[in-house]
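Example 3.2
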Amino acid sequence: MTGVVLAVLAGATGLLLVPGPVWTTYRIVPPPPTRARSREPRWLGKKKPVDDPFAAAASYDLFAVCLRSGLPVATSAKVVSRSAPPALAQILAHASDLLSLGADPLQAWSVSADADQSAATLAAVARRSARAGSSPVRGLEELADSRRGEAQDQAAAAAERAGVAISGPLGLCFLPAFVCLGIVPVVMGLAGKVFGGGLL
């Protein structure tokens, strides 16, 4: 009976020591009642939403396919901006508009210092190819492969961190229960036989 009580106490202690989940809360709210409606989502939470790295890689691939098929850079950027993630779509649409007006490619592909990583790397590849006078297809394909590899590495690292984080609560819950239910009754039974049998 003592072993069961100790096991219950150890399990309850382990559950109390398990860290709670960190939730980011999202809420969909209706747009403001004005003529110029904002279509940007409103987020409640500490972290700013980031683009899906696989969607960004797919946009790089689509951009490369459009350029390889013979479309101009401005038209390709406009086509890709329709299906790209928000941060990437913004830089693609901006560059497409400026290039259609005849702006310098280095100016058209300029981004702010706080731009998203996917948009900044795309703009860097486009500026480099414009400066060299070459097609950015090869750079876009390498960028897509690199982006997918980074996302897979981050996912594997997160899975490994989760495995390490789970081992602590499991140890706190199951090891005391194993000791109380598996070892203590055996030791108490042997001790009762030894002391009760008059061997000592």
